[in-house]
Amino acid sequence: MYPQTHVFFAHKLFGFLSDALVLGSIFPDIAAGLYNDRNESHGRGVDMLLFLQEIGELNEFVMGVITHGIDPKGLDYYGDERFLSYERGYCFEKGRLIVDETIEACNLPASMGWWKSHNIIEMGIELYINNSFCSTALESAFANEVMVLEVSKYMSRFYATEPNKFQNRIQNFFNYIEISKISAESLAARYDMQMYTRHRIHIDVPRVTGLIFKAVELIADDFNDFFNLALDNVRKSLSELQA
Q1: Which of 11, 42, 55, 71 is the most buried (most CB within 10 A)?
Q2: Which residues of 185-213 are buried (b: 16+ CB within 10 A; e: fewer)?
Q3: CA distances from 110 to 75, 103, 150 (A)
Q4: Is residue 147 helix, strand or coil?
Q5: CA–CA dist 142, 173 (Å, integer)
């Protein structure tokens, strides 16, 4: 899922937002830029919780991390990995409906079609949510230099790397995402930049813009049901971890 969606999810779970919680709720995607292994970025929530509990720091941050990831099962588990009895998560299953269109609009080999079509669905969800409160919260979190330094310091210990790797990654991540002016056009333009950075592929921005609008239509009937079920499941998981 995209940043505002994760922040919105965290707010629904906890009833508040802090800079630490906001950064935690998007941190797995920040870490994914440094670690190709998805389990490293999205599957170490319990290890991180125990690590930070031992030193008594960043509790709200790690709660945000757990709401996002795949182990323990956070929003990305239900969106990407598995939802109900389907083969994959909600976004992948919705993405099946636009695989061919995504391949054409994004100039992709067929092998990348389903993966990237699920990104289109995620952008549709981001546009559907488009919450100014979450946008302001993201801007505040990235502007909090003290919090960014603290997160970088402790995450460098957790991942056994240099603090400036995380500090630079957090600052660069801000430039790759759309926060304050979310539209189908702006999401597509950012996606073009991301695709070129990762794959040296330029997308057809107007066609992808149209696909993002189509994604909103595809999720309109059942997204709230998916979201509420994910909230219930993650809420139970958090209660068990905090028991």
Answers
A1: 42
A2: ebbbbbbbeebeeeeeeebebeebbebbe
A3: 27, 6, 42
A4: helix
A5: 10
Query: What is the average per-residue pLDDT within 103-123?
Result: 96
Measured CA angle at 147 (ends 156, 171), to 5 deg:
70
- The number of residues in the chain equals 243
Token pair 């440094």 is found at 34
Residue 174: per-residue pLDDT = 82
pLDDT at 243 exceeding the cut of 80? no
Interval 209-233: pLDDT, tens: 999 999 999 999 999 999 999 999 9
pLDDT band at 47 (very low <50, low <70, confident <90, very high): very high
- So what's the pLDDT on residue 179? 83
CB within 8 A of 69, min separation 6: which ones?
28, 41, 42, 43, 44, 45, 76, 77
**In angstroms, rounded to a whole number, what is the distance separating the alpha carbons of residues 102 and 207?**
9
CA dihedral sign, ordered 60, 64, 70, 73: positive
pLDDT for 132 equals 87
Which residue carries 């998560």 as its tokens?
Answer: 89
Please state, in angstroms and rounded to a whole number, the distance separating the CA atoms of residues 65 and 77: 13
